[in-house]
Specification:
Number of helices: 5
CATH topology of the largest domain: His-Me finger endonuclease fold
Shape: elongated
Structural class: alpha+beta
Strand order of the largest sheet: 1-2
Largest sheet: 2 strands, antiparallel
Helix content: 40-55%
Strand content: 5-15%
Number of strands: 6
CATH class of the largest domain: Alpha Beta
Oligomer: single chain
Order of helices and strands: EEEEHHHEEHH
Radius of gyration: 29 Å
CATH superfamily of the largest domain: His-Me finger endonucleases
CATH architecture of the largest domain: 3-Layer(aba) Sandwich
Number of domains: 2
């Protein structure tokens, strides 16, 4: 196995004892010297490290959230044989509003506290996708389809008052 002399400790070591560049060539310092150098730098730059870690955490959280939303959108659209691009196009066509009430979604996600995405409305009998609805209109429409005469009964009830 090839060897190399560490530039810091001046000890000849096996290539496996060195981190490598992207090109595959070993770096100048062995792993143990690199770790000592990094530890010394972190100890000397505590505030800088804290600031870096806070920023990294904030960005990481944002990236994870965006990735989760994209994955969720892909799952929801695949369920109806559509793509996330189709959803985005339909969302733009409807100006981000519900196809029935023409209002923006106001329902908040239970876990995240963020406004939910518009639901993909489809005919339960045929599976054909119709448009995007807010959660209230989607639930109401589902009830109308599931319970015969629901709309007429609701109209009669409202007329009494």
């Amino acid at each position: 196995m090839p060897t190399k002399i560490c530039a810091a400790c001046k000890i000849e070591k096996d290539f496996n004892d060195f981190y490598t560049h992207k090109s595959g060539k070993p770096k100048s310092y062995c792993k143990s010297c690199t770790q000592k150098i990094n530890r010394r730098w972190r100890d000397a730059n505590v505030e800088r490290m804290r600031k870096y870690m806070r920023e990294w955490e904030r960005n990481s959280r944002k990236v994870r959230r965006e990735h989760h939303l994209e994955r969720e959108l892909k799952c929801r659209t695949n369920k109806y044989g559509k793509t996330p691009e189709w959803y985005r196009q339909k969302h733009a066509e409807q100006n981000g509003l519900c196809a029935i009430c023409h209002l923006a979604e106001t329902q908040k996600h239970k876990s995240y506290g963020t406004i939910m995405a518009l639901a993909i409305d489809h005919n339960h009998a045929t599976g054909k996708v119709r448009g995007l609805l807010c959660s209230q209109c989607n639930r109401t429409l589902t009830r109308c389809e599931a319970i015969p005469n629901w709309m007429e009964n609701a109209a009669i009830y409202l007329a009494q008052y």
